[in-house]
TrEMBL record:
TM regions (residue ranges): 7-29, 35-58, 84-102, 122-138, 150-170, 182-200, 221-242, 282-307, 319-336, 342-360, 381-407
Protein source organism: Phocoenobacter uteri
Keyword set includes Nuclease: no
Protein function: Involved in transporting aromatic amino acids across the cytoplasmic membrane.
NCBIfam families linked to this entry: araaP
Protein name: Aromatic amino acid permease
Similarity annotation: Belongs to the amino acid/polyamine transporter 2 family. Mtr/TnaB/TyrP permease subfamily.
InterPro entries to which the protein is assigned, alphabetical: Amino_acid_transport_2, Trp_tyr_transpt
Length: 409
């Protein structure tokens, strides 16, 4: 272990920042059918499984050099073909998330400052957003640590002020949907799982955490710290929204496109406070930015290893280009729904957040034994993780084909 190892808090903030951007914006919309109790259960189950799968990756990495990445370890243990599939899945999810965050940031900045470049300036704002804030990732992991802590603090303050305005008006009858006349919640609970899984999808950053600390144990604590922060924020945020906006009022949200802007608009009509509405917008922007930087770091390190780009200024420019330019170009040319993008990401993410970690752990234990850093649970945990991942993927595709019931308010 190296001297002056970074604090656990810094690493936890990086992990939390990777998670929080996606979930804060998508969970209340996709969880409206499941409502409070079942949304809470879905988040708790998903957080537990995703934390354990990240720990299993750490166990898999323990016999490798600190510079070894997800790709390196997967290729060594599972072969080139499986590694190729895994690489595609990792890049697809990371790319689609960066694409979604870039699009939402462009739309938000257009809403705030659009008159500077004209009304149809979303693409310009997306470009400005990417070039400014991806520079932290290009600079160093330490820079991401610092900006992540700052953004988490901004999110906490805007969350407190924004949520306090919502929390002060929480109606327990609305929160628990006591006057429910629209049928059960279990019909809609399953369709929340792909979004919930994406909301805890930090696994491409596990190798970065191990490199950062030089220790599996410290990285383990950073992971549980980060996923716990994310879970607490998700629950507080969800309760505040579900306690103010009746389940039946989500019909207006879905008729308006079922996106984040529609939800903020509906909340604004219910709470009638411009200050709270603007604070919520600031919070959502901080959430998108923090997740953009956190996801960007994981994809940046992953692709740098995959393409064997060195850590010089020129090498980092190449890594920056393959990480941020494709999502930016697609965002400018083909912007589409944020929630839909998160759902697709969740389905594909099951490959490298559930299935591959379990298979890697099985192979690593057969090859290297369980000495040293080890996660308890045996083969039962590995099977449960694989089944969970397969179930989430199947649920998404059934939902996409309109086979599962869809809540429309």
């Amino acid at each position: 272990m190296r001297k002056n190892s970074p604090s656990i808090i810094g690493g936890a903030c990086i992990i939390a920042s990777v998670c929080v951007g996606a979930g804060m914006l998508a969970i209340p919309i996709k969880g409206a059918g499941a409502w409070t109790i079942y949304s809470t259960l879905a988040l708790l189950i998903t957080m537990t499984m995703m934390t354990l799968s990240g720990w299993l990756l750490l166990e898999t990495y323990k016999k490798y050099e600190l510079t070894a990445s997800f790709s390196t370890v997967t290729k060594d243990l599972l072969g080139s073909k499986i590694n190729f599939i895994n690489n595609l899945a990792v890049y697809f999810v990371g790319g689609i998330l960066l694409y979604a965050y870039t699009t939402v940031a462009g739309l938000t900045l257009t809403d705030l400052f659009g008159s500077i470049f004209g009304e149809n300036s979303t693409g310009i704002w997306s470009i400005i957003f990417v070039f400014i804030f991806s520079s932290f990732v290009w600079h160093s992991t330490r820079a991401v640590d610092r900006i992540s802590v700052l953004l988490i603090l901004v999110m906490i303050f805007t969350f407190i002020f924004g949520v306090s305005g919502l929390a002060s008006n929480i109606d327990m009858k609305i929160l628990l949907d006591s006057n429910n006349e629209q049928g059960g919640y279990t019909l809609f609970a399953a369709t929340m799982l792909p979004v919930a899984l994406t909301s805890f999808g930090y696994h491409h950053s596990v190798a970065s955490m191990r490199i950062y600390y030089g220790s599996e144990m410290k990285a383990k604590y950073a992971i549980i710290g980060g996923t716990s922060i994310a879970l607490i924020l998700y629950l507080l945020w969800t309760f505040s929204i579900f306690g103010n906006l009746p389940r039946s009022e989500f019909k207006q949200v879905f008729e308006s496109g079922g996106e984040w802007q529609a939800l903020v608009g509906a909340l604004g009509q219910m709470i009638e406070s411009e200050t709270v509405t603007n604070t919520i917008k600031a919070f959502s922007m901080a959430a998108v930015l923090s997740s953009f930087i956190g996801v960007g770091l994981g994809v940046f390190d992953y692709l740098a290893d995959f393409f064997q780009f060195d850590n010089t200024k020129q090498g980092r420019i190449k890594s920056w280009a393959v990480t941020f330019l494709p999502p930016l170009i697609l965002s400018v040319l083909f912007p589409f729904g944020f929630v839909k993008a998160i759902g697709y990401a969740g389905a594909v993410a099951t490959i490298w957040t559930c299935i591959i970690p379990a298979l890697l752990t099985k192979k690593a234990r057969e090859k290297n034994g369980i000495e040293g850093f080890h996660i308890r649970g045996g083969n039962g945990l590995l099977v449960a993780l694989i089944l969970f991942g397969i179930s989430v993927a199947v649920i998404h595709f059934l939902d996409m084909m309109s086979i599962l019931p869809v809540f429309k308010g």
